[in-house]
Structures are given as structure tokens and as C-alpha cells.
Amino acid sequence: MKKITTAILLLATGITFAQSPCTGGTADTFPCSGYDLQSRISNGTMGASGANDSWGWTDPQDGKEYAIVGLTNGTAFIDVSDPVNPVYLGKLPTHTDSSIWRDVKVYDNHAFIVSEAGGHGMQVFDLTRLRNVASPPTTFTNDAHDNSFGSAHNIAINEDTGYAYPIGSSLFSGGPIFINIQDPTNPVFEGGYATDGYTHDAQIVTYNGPDTEHAGKEIFIGSNADELVIVDITDKSNPVQLGSTDYPNVGYTHQGWFTEDQRYFLLGDEGDEFDFGFNTRTVVFDLSDLDNPLYDFAYEGDTAAVDHNGYVVGDKFYLSNYAAGLRVLDISDIENGNITLDGYFDTYPSNNSANYSGSWNVYPFFASENIVITGDAGMTLVKASGSLSTEDFEQTKFSLFPNPATDRLTVSSTEEGIARVEIFNVLGQKVLDNTYASRLSETINITSLNTGMYLVTINNTTTKRLVVK
């Protein structure tokens, strides 16, 4: 059990602590709507002049969450299990030179990192090493390195198949490289795809969408600067293009993501705000027939800011929108051509104009629903408004104290009978089971629990949120 006070954490990690709810349209000077500020870590604290891409890792052993942040001079690892007091654990330095472009994805508890720095190749880092960092911040080293290519703009991974796809390199005309990472520290080069030329970003999925002809195949959706391409890469020795399409007013076809039913693909064009004067534009394709991709419609936001990377979780599209920060779009009625703004958190208050300052990336996939934003402001952690309270679902007949807790938790009740208290981690795994006579307060020893967020159920129904420090 960690027993570090907030003051000591701030001193040791250099965190800019600023937990603040979004009230009156701001949270600690940041414009916002519907999203609260949890905490921030500056680029200076991470020893870099800037941050770029980001991803995340949830430890399957204990459910702890970690942010992985690309920096100009390396890759930072941050324990965000306590979102109010994140711990900067250290940095893996760039393999060669500094660069403003760095990209990272995760497979099988390993991070795979590429950069446009010359000769960088692919760094492989075992994320389980983050479980025991004695004196953060530390300087890490690779666990493996792949030098089958030099620089690359980006990397995509299909976690279902265990393949990594560096893209935007000097090989295969900038198209995807096929690297088998099923044994993460022994990557194996298996060729690539050059037919459609340079790919800027991509999503690769094991297809389970409406086009049953391609069910179970490994499908590559490439954002190729001036068009969207769809390639069947199931057979690495014989990739086959299924379809391609452009759309009205192409500026720079940058990045996109499937809806969860794999029918629609939401694309960001990084150049159309400059070239055509659009507000932030999200282009929607209907991919119900992969051999015949169709432009469906476009949604324009309420600012001129340039869109960068976007990801879908459920019926929300989480977009890094440069000068406009994080923008969250409601896509629940996308089938009828309707997209609406759900909320935002603006990490670049100076303006919302078309430029490349502000939010480079967001990572919205943590089970805790904390969202990582990276860019000019370093790493910013936010969450949907109303989630800062640890008593979200409280019912008056039970109480937990103290909350946050360290060594012991007291459960009290005003109701007769025997109650069962169960505590679950963010993965839904039961980590403590106890019973007590409900009219008597009982102290439960929780020293076996790691720091982080838990759910406490009482008699299978009453749920409370518990923070363990």
C-alpha cells in the first residue's frame, strides 16, 4: 500500500495539480463543457519541449492504468491509476534523434514505438516493468529493437492477429510494413504493401461488420493523403485492394476510425480548414460494402480548428482538435446523418483558429473513463463532468469512510441484517469479499489492494466508488 501524501507526490513528480470541475464554462482557466479536469503534467516535467501522440495500457494483473506519451525526445510512462495524483515514472529516450513525430501502440503488455527521426526503427518496451519503479522518474532502455526500416510516421497494430504495421516509411512507397509481433521482443519482418502508395495513418481490424463476404478477414483502412483505401491483408504474401474512394474537397486525408458496428468510418481531413475555409470537418463513409465504399455526409464543428486524431468508444467520437482541444461528438444517430457536439475540454485557450498548436492526440479507451489529452500542454487528464465525486451511486443506508482510503475502510449501515461487501477492480474482477452485521460498523483491512479506483457493492445492489491511495 502506498502511503505517499499529496504534497510529497507533487514534490517528487513535478505535477501541475489542478483537479477542477467544469463550472461556468471553465476548469482552472481551460474552456470546457461537460468535462472536468483531473490533473496535468507539463512537457517540462517530462524533460521535453513538446508532446505528440499517446496511447494507454491497463495492467491485466491489477487493473492499474498507465498513459504512454510520445515526446520530442522519447516516450514517457505515467501511472494514472490515481487520476488526481498521476506519477511520472520516467522516459524511454528516442533511439536516434529528437523529432516532433512519434507514435506508439500496445500489444501483449508491450509498447511499440516509431518516429520520423532518421534510423529510429521500432522500439519495443515491456510495460510490466512499470509495476515496480523504485525511484521515479527513471531512464528506461529498450527490451528489443527492430531495424528492418528507418523512420516511420506512424504505427498501427491489430491486437487480434499480433501484427504491427509501421506506415509512412521509406519502404513500400510509404505503405504498410508487415511485422509479426506475436513474440513481442522478437519481431519478424514479413513484407509490406506498396500498391496504393503512401499511407499517413490506418486502422486495421479483424472484420466483423455488415459485409459478410469479408467476415473474419484482416482489413486495412488506410488514410492515404488524398483518398481512403481498403485492403484485405489476411494473406501477407498477397494483399488485395478491395476498394478506394475520395470525397468532396479533399485537403489532406489524415486519420479515421470505424464505428463499433464497423459500418461507418469517420475521417479527419487535416488540410481542408486551410484549403477551403471549413470549420472542423468530420467526413463519414458508409462501408457496409467494403468493395464499394461510399461517401455519406460531413459534419462541421463550431470552430475553425484543425482536426487531428479521432477514436470511437460506444456512441461517442473523441477528437483531438488542435487549438480547440478535445471535442466529443455524439454519433448515436449517425445512421440518419446526425452528429452533435457532446462536450469539450480546450487545452489551448489562446484561440480556436486553424493552426497546429494545441491537442495532438487523445486516448479515450480506459475502463475508468479518464481521457488522456497530449500536445502543447503536456499530458492532461479529464473525465466527464460529475465524475469527480467518489460517492457517485451512494444510497443513504450505507456509508464508506474514509474515502479515499489507505489501510482500512469502515462500512456502516442503518439497516438490520447481514450484508455482503464485495470490492471489484476496474476490470470487474472481485478483489475482496467480506460479510458483516449491518447495524455494527465494521473495519475492513484493504492493505492488499493497489492504489486506484474500485467499485464496492453491498448486498449485490448498492454501489459506491472507492479510491484507494
Radius of gyration in whole Å, from Cα? Answer: 23 Å
Q: So what's the overall shape?
A: globular
Strand arrangement in the largest pleated sheet: 1-2-28-27-26-25
- What name does the CATH topology of the largest domain carry? Methylamine Dehydrogenase, Chain H
Largest sheet: 6 strands, antiparallel
Number of structural domains: 2
Overall pLDDT: 90
Given the structure, what is the number of helices? 2
Termini gap: 7 Å
Tell me the CATH superfamily of the largest domain: YVTN repeat-like/Quinoprotein amine dehydrogenase
Q: Structural class given helices, strands, pairing?
A: mainly beta
The name of the CATH architecture of the largest domain is 7 Propeller
The unreliable regions are 1-17, 388-396
Task: Please state roughly what percent of the residues sit in beta strands, choosing from under 5%, 5-15%, 15-25%, 25-35%, 35-45% or over 45%.
Answer: 35-45%
Helix fraction bin: under 10%
CATH class of the largest domain, named Mainly Beta
Strand count:
38
